[in-house]
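Morning F.,

Quick status update on the modeling queue. The single chain you submitted on Monday has been processed. Sequence for confirmation:
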Amino acid sequence: MIRRSLALFLLLFLSTAAVADEGMWLFNATPKKKIKAKYGFEPTEQWLDHVRLSSVRFNNGGSGSFVSADGLAFTNHHVGADCVQSLATKDHDYMKTGFYARTRAEEVKCPDLELNVLMGIEDVTGKVSGAAKPGMSVAEAGQAQRATMSAIEKECADSTHLRCDVITFYSGGRYHLYKYKKYTDVRLVFAPEFMIAFFGGDPDNFEFPRYDLDITFFRIYENDKPVTLTHYFQWTRAGVRAGDLVFVPGNPGSTGRDNTLAQMEFSRDVNFPFLLKSYKQRLQALKAFAAGSEENARIAREDIFGIENSFKAVTGYQSGLLDPKLMAKKAAAEKRLRAAIAADPAKKAEFGAAWEEVAKAMAVSKQIFLPLTYLERRAGFRGDLAFKARALLRATAEKKKPNGERMREYRDSGLPSLEQQLFSTAPVYKALETVILTESLTEMQQNLGADHPAVQQVLGGRTPAEVAKDAIANTKLDDVAVRKQLYQGGAAAVDASSDPLIVLMRSIDGEARKVRKQYDDQVDAVVRRNGALLSKAKFAAGGLEMPPDATFTLRLSYGAVRGFVEDGQGSIVPKGTKVPYFTTIGGAYKHAAEKGNTDPYQLPDSWMKNKGKVNLNTPLNFTSTPDIIGGNSGSPVVNKAGEVVGIIFDGNIQSLPWNFMYSDAIGRSVSVDARGISEALRNIYGASELADELAGPPQPMPKAKAAPKAKAAPKEAAPKQ
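Structure tokens below.
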């Protein structure tokens, strides 16, 4: 009876854990029957393969997709902005004016973008888990598993010439080898003005209704020619209506739904408060710099946007952890599982201590949090040039070691991507770098304390501003040729370098490595071992019945196009307002007029001049229920036919607690409508060639099994065309 009670609990856990349309599903564990039962549509393997191979990951933290046979890809403007900003100059501010290459010859290569297409998945759990031998300490087991992962990746990369990454799922319960085709010749085709890509600015961010054209188009080249693709998404001609089933293939960054209560409390009490305080200080420094001149404002714009976006996102994540109801649900679920395991002597012996071990690891994590964050994770040495100094120092030193003994980020299979970043030709602005380094050194001094050995070593009696000014003014690392010479010279050349930034990073490297090892051995390895045990306990009755937490790898979410009733958390409409699922281009003009057409509600000149040409009833943005999180930005929204109907660019404020628990009661994904994109391209930007390429000739698409239609959801009024 005791064992039966555990099995019944696990069955209940699995059946209630996934509510509504929850799930960022693995492509090799898609819940086809569940989708069919609810929506009357069952994706076939052929359909899933087509969607997988049409989807791309942007290495700078976003998602995207292919949308023509000639290598055309698109993502959000805020994902592509790194490239747009790096190609801009004082005289040609493409963030302000937008960019459109009317011919292939005008398409401009991005300095350091990398796009990945997932070609295959292999389960290597047995190999990685088996590396932890009986009698090994937790630290030894962790090192053995990391070495095995690096060996698997190297063998795969050498034999396939693909990018190969071993991905950890279920906190170490599963390990899968992901094999990626990598594209590095990525050229800018089209980007709208920043003011329409981020219309409404920070006040409207994570809100709805929205009126944004948050898109950018690129073309992928190989051997100086556009790639020819078999798999790409066709552009919708019909659009979407309320209740339509939609899918979102994308690369969600990270979630904490499988976290123990101790891990969630660490985020709530330590990590998130630290981040929010840091973001405020960084924003203050950047805005002060931007106020100095128009050029300062231009070069700081992307950094300011990124931090404002992160601040609002983390505030939303924290709101979930500060919600007594959410935390009570998590605590109750953990208590029930622990009680069920404690009632079974065999299960108690196997799993019973796991929660306490994770809690001990969180205590260590709290103890080392500040030195780990400021020294090893470079919060005390932010900036592009400081990154390059650390990369040169570490990469050349780590390459001297056997592959399996290196830090994971310097394994052989990861070096090509690191080298692309290291040798990027993107412009570096020393004035901005000085401000960023000054602020981070100041933060480190404040939080570690002026008496901390690393702080004393770095500052040497000087102020943070003096150290930053000297290091940035005198470094030569802004020169690509210098970076290449140092890297090619290996550890000997870097060790002999007197470049002030390298000297600075070298001065704290020993202390940074020390705290990194403490984290790897006493936190990461402990969470990996015990997290795997907890996953085994949770899923003993159902295998991969629940998707693992997000890992910035390709997942598939699904749901319905649907509006919501505002609960008061949002700031645009009053509590109780029934918010329709869509907005229109005409609504953007109305919203701008209501706000006096002033920043951040100012429409670009291109929109004002061409208002008479536009169908104002064309849908611009819409909401739906697919499960997303940061990293899904740029994910295509596709229908059953595998056509693009939109592109994810945000979620409403109520979606942010999805980091820890999903609910579709009010939380929504927010997308740019494909019809709005086409209308803007043709009638606002005169980009008919691009719109024609998207429309393209019809192509047979992989067919999915169609089941009898499920009971339809109540329809909302559809937009007039």
